[in-house]
Amino acid sequence: MRVKICGITKPEQGQAIAQLGATALGFICVQASPRYVTPSQIRAVVESLPLPIDCIGVFANADWEEICQIAADAGLTSVQLHGDESPEFCEKLRYALPEMEILKALRVKTPECLERAVTYTPCVDTLLLDAYHPQLLGGTGKTLDWAILREFCPSIPWLLAGGLTPDNILDALRELQPSGIDLSSGVERSPGDKDLAQVALLFERLGSLDYR
Ligand SMILES: O=C(O)c1ccccc1N[C@@H]1O[C@H](COP(=O)(O)O)[C@@H](O)[C@H]1O
Q: Where in the numbering of this chain does the N-(5'phosphoribosyl) anthranilate isomerase (PRAI) domain appear (predicted)?
């Protein structure tokens, strides 16, 4: 199972989180977010990593040319689209970045959102389901209604996000079988400052599941 820790801003925290067992780090490329990092800050983290893991840039309603430029400048392996990007936009980006993993994040408000999610399966590599918040795009600490995801079984891999913490992760994984999980505010002291003790606790609890 993939484990993505999102909202990385500091090289030493990225390195420690990679050593603890994360398979992906996420970097917020949305300027309005308190976790925003510039392409050169991302590159500094990416180049300091002790082992090769996925480095995912999180964008929301950005121009595709801007995404391509930032992905190259920062050294990303993957692009997460967390805004209102259409399937057509994803397809265009797929052609522009053929080597890169494209993840489409959907903020799930009602069960109908899951029908919309599957319309992206032909044009992205991975789906990501996050909680809906009326003002914020992500990093909200709000959980999804996991019950409505029980039957969700798309034809491509999907990550569960939204308010996951070391305290609720085992409950989530008892209820659902995502291809991976994504945590941000549930393992941080303040926006962009990760709590390494909480990340270590997460992997300790996941270890009891034999999740790999
Ligand atoms: O974290 C942010 O600030 C952010 C800003 C804009 C779009 C997405 C953002 N984060 C994403 O939110 C989810 C879950 O966060 P949380 O665990 O509930 O705090 C995750 O996919 C982040 O990539």
A: 3-204
